[in-house]
Amino acid sequence: MKSFVYQDSTIAFVTAAAQTCLLLEHADEHAREELTEQLLRLLPVLYLRTRLLEQTEPMLEEEPQRFVSEEDYNYTLIGIRNVYGQDDAYLDVYVDRGVYTDEVQTAYISEGLADIYQELKNMAAAFQTGEEAIMNDAVLLCREAFDEHWGQKVIAVMRALHALSNTAQDEE
Length: 172
What we know:
Layout: H1 8-25, H2 32-51, H3 70-84, E1 89-96, E2 99-108, H4 109-127, H5 132-171
Antiparallel strand pairs: 1-2
Helix pairs in contact: 1-2, 1-4, 2-5, 3-4, 4-5
């Protein structure tokens, strides 16, 4: 049996994560409509690939190193914010562990995507070490973070991007 890190589902997830990171790192090189379209194609794949990951157990006693600095995070956030401008903000209903509240909050596409980027980039950078135990635990940690928070962010950002995409089409 293949090791977890070399299973098809893991490789497909890491590939989708790397594509997402690359797009987000260069977000400000795209027009809003182009970036929105690419994200609406990529984010569902990322979500699905994450859900399809096999279960694994940690191999190390401590968590893998975090690679994304505050500067990296802010660079990505600002690049995305610059693309979306005044359309960056959207209204969202907070969900905590599957429990909906009636409290509507302002959320930001750029923040949601930067949070997703941070989790994915930390995993991808750890994966590049080539050390199986580090790779295993990095993917495991990223999957746990998906369950805890960034999976919801993918869905919320997709909803906001979908609305933007339809607004842009209506204006044409």
